[in-house]
Amino acid sequence: ANHNMKRTIKLTSIGLCFVGPVLGGWYKLLDQLFPGNTKIVALKKMCLDQGLLAPIFLGCFISLTGVLNGLSADEIWLKLNKDYKDTLITNYYIWPAVQMTNFYFMPLKHRVATVQIVSVMWNCYLSWKTQKP
Asked: Which Gene Ontology terms describe the biological processes this protein takes part in (predicted)?
C-alpha cells in the first residue's frame, strides 16, 4: 500500500489547528466546571465530554475533512448523513472508558497527550471512514 502524503498533511493540519486547541480548551473548561478527580467528578466530565463535545466535535471533524478534500457543501452534507451515525456509535465503544481513565488518573496537563496516544488508532479509523467515497 502506498502512503498518501496529502492525506497525512490534511489530518496533521486538522490535529494542529483544530483538535489540539479544542481539546486543550475543553479540558480546562471541564476542570473549572468540575474541580477534582474523584470517580463522580470523572464520571460527570466523561458524560459531558461524550454527550456534548463528542457529537459536535465529530460533525466538525467530518466537515473539515470534507472541506480539505475539496467537497462541496452538498457533498459534505451527504457524507455526514452517510458516515456520522456509524462513526459516533464506534466512538461510544472506545472513548467513554478512555475518558473515564483520563479524567480520573491524569492531571490536566497530560490529558491531551493521553488522548492523542489512543487517537493514533482512532485517527486511522477516522481517516479510513472519511476518505471512503
From this structure: regulation of mitochondrial DNA metabolic process
Predicted TM-score (pTM) of the model is: 0.86
pLDDT at 112: 86
For residues 70 and 47, what is the distance between their CA atoms, to the nearest angstrom?
34
Domain boundaries, the chain: 5-131
- Please check whether residue 92 is in contact with residue 50, taking contact to mean a CB–CB distance below 8 angstroms: yes
Look-up of cell digits 471512503:
132
Between the alpha carbon of residue 65 and those of residues 23, 41, 62, 107, the distances in Å are: 18, 33, 5, 30
* Cell of residue 20, nine digits: 489540539
